[in-house]
Amino acid sequence: MIVIKNLNKAYRTATNTVTALENINLEIQKGDIFGIIGFSGAGKSTLIRCLNRLEEPDSGSIEIEGRIITELNHKELQQARQKIGMIFQQFNLLDAKTVFENIAFPLKVAGHSKPYIRQRVREMLELVGLPDKENAYPSQLSGGQKQRVGIARALVNNPDVLLCDEATSALDPQTTHSILELLQDINRKLNLTIVLITHELDVLQHICRNMAVIENGRIVERGSVDKFFLNP
Ligand code: ADP
Ligand code: ADP
């Protein structure tokens, strides 16, 4: 389970302060697919990036599967991040490395043995449907294939949660559909909690069970996706 309490975040520049998140409170159950939707500038990206402290909140707390993320020191955070997978709109793969090396990278950081790494990367490639691409470079892959590699890399350390930062926004509708189907399949198989941000209702409606609407840094609506689409 993820528990966010009284989370605040502002960006300060020399000339002004932009409030990005204002007193966010949210609970996300284990195994849920939880969507956070809002227009551009609403605070979605800031919120999801606070969950692994790619952004540092100003105040408030975040707990993921019993671990208080907001209280960890640098070293503890490095450890905790192995259990928080993330995928990105622009995939963020290492272009000079092969698919195999990209997926192996988090395992190397975690200090696993070579035989384990080899076996685990192959398992992941199987899971995302790219068993024959281990020696390809990212530039040789389609957008959908790149995101599959991103998913494999995010899951390789068997995380408690997968964070998806506009993960399908760079993809065409058909590819979006297949990536969402894959995420749903993984959610079912692994009972993996998925948190995603999107500006697209279609994405939310396609795979999320629960959702929150964010507007100007505040949660303005929340509940089950079914309920939301029945009583707009
Ligand atoms: P409403 O129908 O009033 O919009 P819900 O029935 O969705 O609200 O929720 C009832 C209460 O539980 C509200 O106070 C809401 O803030 C809280 N709540 C619902 N979902 C969540 C959640 N995921 N995290 C934290 N609080 C929630
Ligand atoms: P969204 O993901 O919903 O588009 P963001 O979290 O990116 O929203 O942004 C929320 C608000 O914070 C916006 O007003 C945005 O302009 C501002 N913001 C985001 N990142 C920065 C930054 N690094 N410096 C200053 N302001 C920022």
From TrEMBL:
This is ABC transporter domain-containing protein. PANTHER family: AMINO ACID IMPORT ATP-BINDING PROTEIN, METHIONINE IMPORT ATP-BINDING PROTEIN METN. One of its GO terms (molecular function) is ATP hydrolysis activity. GO terms for cellular component: plasma membrane. CDD domains: ABC_MetN_methionine_transporter (cd03258). One of its GO terms (biological process) is amino acid transport. Residues 2-232 form the ABC transporter domain.
